[in-house]
Amino acid sequence: MIDTPKNDNNFTDQKSLNALKLHGEKIIYAVLLVLAVFFGWQYYQKNYAKIDTVAADAYTSISTRDEQLVQAYLNPQLDAAGKQALVEEEKQLLGDIDALVAAHGDTAYAWQALMIKARHQTNNNDLEGAVATLSQAASIDLDDDGLTAIAKIRHARAMLANGDTNGALSIANEAMPTAFEASRQELLGDIYHAKNEIDNAKAAYTKAWEALRERQENRAVLALKLQSLGVSVEPIEPAPSVVSIPNTQPTVEGGDASQIVEHDSAVTDTQNPQNGN
């Protein structure tokens, strides 16, 4: 066994000490950063993840009760007492929506709940309330241009139904994703028609029809609007049907969120031009 000279050990120790002095602060910062990320993730899991679960559970309850109300109102044998009970349940539902929005107002769950609330308000002819609700939904920043466009279009339709054609026109003229151009142009046509600007209405409806033609999608109501203004339209050949693949992504009222962003027909297909939802 060969002994290492003392002066070599001293040299190595001095070299290590110098390296520690030079890089020690960086090492400490790196360790602190790792700890901060770890404890930050733990904090998120214990707090924000739990909040998301609470919001999801609240929305699930609201959505289920909303569907039950819709079905109950369709009952032809509903008597006066039953109708009153449904009115009270509807009030409670809208109150719970307000509570969800107050607690989780910057989430997609709040957006979806506001869509439900606006529909109830519109069905009850509370157009002013629907305008306010849809304005609130449009102001939620979800970093999703598709959902924002849906809220804007419905907001403008509610304003149109409430007689505010200029306000509706202002929203309809805002930039929206290309996927929503057909619905935006149809909305513009409805607004111009209400303002008795028939030439502008024809032009907007025609643009909407051509946008639908590009993706081979029929919209019967739009065809009737064009024909009522004396505009002949060439029928659109529907795209070949494809096998539907089940989707497990979160949904928004009216369909899968990703499908709505790519495909704007869900915004207007089932709507009356004067309907706020």
From TrEMBL:
Residues 239-277 are annotated as: Disordered. Residues 267-277 have a biased composition (Polar residues). GO terms for cellular component: plasma membrane. It comes from the Bacteria. Residues 23-230 form the Ancillary SecYEG translocon subunit/Cell division coordinator CpoB TPR domain. InterPro entries: SecYEG/CpoB_TPR, TPR-like_helical_dom_sf, YfgM. It is a single-pass type II membrane protein. Its main location: membrane. Keywords: Cell membrane, Chaperone, Membrane, Transmembrane, Transmembrane helix. Belongs to the YfgM family. GO terms for molecular function: protein-containing complex binding. SUPFAM superfamilies: TPR-like. This is Ancillary SecYEG translocon subunit. It is found in: Cell membrane. It comes from Moraxella catarrhalis. The chain crosses the membrane at residues 27-44.
